[in-house]
Amino acid sequence: MHPTLRRLAASHNFPAPFSPTGLTGVLTHPLPRTTLIALYTQTLSLLSSLPSTSVYRTSTEALTRKRLAAVESVKPYGWAEYEAKLASIKKRYGLEGAEKKGDVSLAIAAAQMREVIREIKEEVHPEEEAMIKNLEGQEKFWDRVLGDVSTEAAKAADKASKEQLFETLKEIPREPPLSRGQIHQIEEKIAGGLIEEIIHQGMEEIKVIEAMKEYKPWEDLEETAPEGQWVYFERK
């Protein structure tokens, strides 16, 4: 699905959250920039725990840093005012620099996603069963994400408990929305399809890293391969 098909899904400059994207079964993500930055920050954090000699680590780090830079280069309208307000809040709650830590960044995105989803659910007509089911599924997903990272995020943010972290997260304002043109800019820079597809790729990459940490493919085999195991056919 080419990103330009998004233009067929909305006639206004800012696509409505969870509106059609033009790709069957995929709805417009309400916080794409926040979510991508959080996913890429967490990815880099997790990759740092793998051996520096791992080819997977070095190649994935390079790709992730490139994508993170592409996302951060596109700033929504009103960014200067938002950044000033955010800096004041982070200073007040002792969060300066904490958002650069993977667990904290992901916790912020998850908390804000839950808030947006609950707001949208209140506006959805009871007869829109498909939309309600989709929102409930997303709410459960982000609840699970927040639960998974909250303990480490609380430590990273220097909070005494998860509850204290949750109260602090409520004070962090959402970024101004991206316009359709800005979303298209990110899609063009990354060249991975719709921004929603790019977010899905980011989520899947984290699963791959977790699997790598579990199976440790860089370690020697438990049973040494017989001589010639990795020698391919060749003329003798």
TrEMBL record:
Main location: mitochondrion
Domain of life: Eukaryota
Membrane topology: Peripheral membrane protein
GO biological process: respiratory electron transport chain
This protein's record includes keyword Mitochondrion: yes
Cellular component per GO, a single term: mitochondrial inner membrane
Cell location: Mitochondrion inner membrane
Swiss-Prot/TrEMBL keywords: Electron transport, Membrane, Mitochondrion, Mitochondrion inner membrane, Respiratory chain, Transport
Alphabetical list of InterPro entries matching this protein: NDUFA5 (IPR006806)
Family: Belongs to the complex I NDUFA5 subunit family.
Record-given protein name: Uncharacterized protein
Source organism of the structure: Ascobolus immersus RN42
